[in-house]
Amino acid sequence: MNYESKDIRNVVLLGHSGSGKTSFAETMLFESHAISRKGSIEDRSTVSDYTAIEQEKGNSIFSTLEHVAWKDCKINIFDTPGFDDFVGEVIPPLKVSDTAIVILNAKSGVEVGTELIWEYIEEFKTPAFFVINQLDHEKSDFENTLEQARNRFGNRVLPIQFPVNQGPNFNAIVDVLRMVMYIFPTNGGKPEKKPIPAEHLERANEWHNALVEAAAENDESLMEKYFENGNLNEDEMSRGLTIGLAHQQFFPVFCTSSAKNMGSGRIMGFIHDVCPSPIDRPAANLEGGGSKPCDPNARPCLFIFKTVHEPKVGNISYFKLYSGTIKSGDELVNAENGIVERFTQLYITEGKNRELVHELRAGDIGCTVKLKGSHTNQTLNPKGSNAKIEKMKFPSSRIRMTVVPPSKAELEKLANALHMIQEEDPTLHVEQSVELKQTIINAQGELHLDLVKYKVDSNFGVKMEFAEPKVPYRETITKEANTTYRHKKQSGGAGQFAEVHMRIEPYYDGMPAPHGLTVKNIEVETLKWGGKFSFCWAIVGGSIDARFINAIKKGIMSKMEEGPLTGSYCRDIRVSIYDGKMHPVDSNDMAFQLAATFGFKECFHNAGQQILEPIYDVEVLCNSDVMGHVMGDLQTRRAIISGMDSDGHYQVVRARVPLKEMHKYSSTLRSLTQGKAKFKMTYADYQPVPNDIQQKLIATHQVELEELHAAHHH
């Protein structure tokens, strides 16, 4: 079946872990006859949680794309994970969806996962509505959940439904848009329509009028009708609500029980009648300005939002067609790298099953296999067009680990596996740190790391372990020191001789020239690892020949790259060479290089040596009842609390924390707050480490050097 752009609806299911997204997707599939029996998470039989790890954990980890036919439209449904460790699986579906369905758990109300999601809904300006699920639970509390949603998301939250007799006997919903009561059979499915009972009528009328006002608000002709007749008919209501929803002017609320299969049919009816098609949405923003409207008659333009690697198939590229039509066999050009890609096969997907289609139209979502050089976040167009859909931005990482090096044999396998996984997961960042001589993995949290481990094992057959990574310290000095260093070697044949007199001082921008010296030349270099190095040549009368300048500089730099205290990079130092001696025969580049290295090291130890550590700005969002625990824990991490304020009904704690102390913070925070907190961290600057820690770091480095030395001599 080929759908027109106006008959496509792209929706994404969002919500905190455990709110019932996967079960809700399952009831949508069942109600629309896409599947013949409803799967369950317990039986591991749902369409969207089809991977072994999801079934094992009973939670969604990957976003899954499914579709249903409802009346004359096609609804593409994304089911997404609820843990914020997997935010990389939430942003792409949200980017390409036209409506967000936020599922709230009736027994727990608005949870921190919902908060996180809301930030993205606002950023993407996606029309959204709420579904209060699990109304059949004995602890279900519709009123409280609605109240929390209103408190947090404002009075634009307007209920379209409320439950009658919530709890284990839940079987009826009052719909204030259609002004009927739906009564469901025991095992759910298609309800009976009944008039609203007298005891619920007052509330139903009040809420109905609020909806009518919201519908009339956006359209003058509707406003007039409303004033004339005091009401609007269903078509008029739908038209007005479509506009209001599209502009985020109101967020409707529905009621369901996914477990009992009650209420999803009505929601699909609403998606069909009111939710925007891709054509109704504003044109997509392009990189560098301009926009791309969804037009089925324009030239094709597609955006790859997700790449998945399947062992037997290779890379599967999921894309949204932003304009035009694409047919199998078409060729498009990648706007990023100019590679021409041929789309030999086009598919639509149902969880893990793919179905071949001949063409797709603007606004639809599909996938293809075996693209040569196209990746996530890239746009493809016909020859001659180089439009680029605005890229997705992903949050910075919150946890860093190092990979314990496996056996030599496995090393290459592991590097290849990590490369593949990084390719499909934009929130994972793997770096080979030259500085720390470690492979560092930057991820979103413990659960995210578990997943990486699982993928490496199950798809590539490599067992990997993580350990605490080293911290990228820096070394500097706090006062001036002078030294004279003579390097002399006499042993048969050519000797080596060099003597340098040097002064080192802490460098800062705009500092005066060195006192008491006749300066010939000062250079200031910005170091690639941060900070500066200044080199000052103050030789008078040619006691050292100018041809040795580079050798001396090289000698100092070799020590700056591997500092005297911990082997870390040095920064913010000025070195002045003001005197020395040379020998007509025995002085060469090598001799001066060595004299400069050893001279610098000796001088460094007398110049108030100081180790610096990276400090991060940390922001924690939590409930006020756990705030004391959060603060207490931060203080044990040498944090300096820099501010507190409230955001809705959440508290925000801001602090500056050394990176060293943030190891495994995400799991501590999760257990401290029962998962009711989230945090982000961004690099701020380098600060001196306390003296006791400095001593420890120097001692540890000494031991490492001795071990290394001993290993060499064996």
Task: Write the topology of this structure.
Elements: E1 8-14, H1 21-31, H2 52-57, E2 64-70, E3 73-79, H3 91-96, E4 99-105, H4 112-124, E5 128-133, H5 142-153, E6 157-159, E7 161-164, E8 172-175, E9 180-183, E10 192-194, H6 198-216, H7 220-229, H8 234-246, E11 251-255, H9 264-273, E12 284-285, E13 291-292, E14 301-310, E15 314-323, E16 325-327, E17 331-334, E18 340-342, E19 346-350, E20 353-357, E21 359-361, E22 365-369, E23 379-381, E24 399-403, H10 408-424, E25 429-433, E26 438-443, H11 446-460, E27 466-467, E28 474-477, E29 481-489, E30 496-506, E31 521-526, E32 532-537, H12 549-561, E33 569-570, E34 573-581, H13 589-605, E35 609-622, H14 627-636, E36 640-647, E37 650-658, H15 665-673, E38 677-688, H16 691-713
Parallel strand pairs: 1-3, 1-4, 4-5, 5-11, 6-11, 28-33, 32-34
Antiparallel strand pairs: 2-3, 7-8, 8-9, 9-10, 12-13, 14-15, 14-23, 15-22, 16-21, 17-18, 17-23, 19-20, 24-26, 24-27, 25-26, 28-35, 29-30, 30-34, 31-32, 35-37, 35-38, 36-37
Helix pairs in contact: 6-7, 6-8, 10-11, 12-13
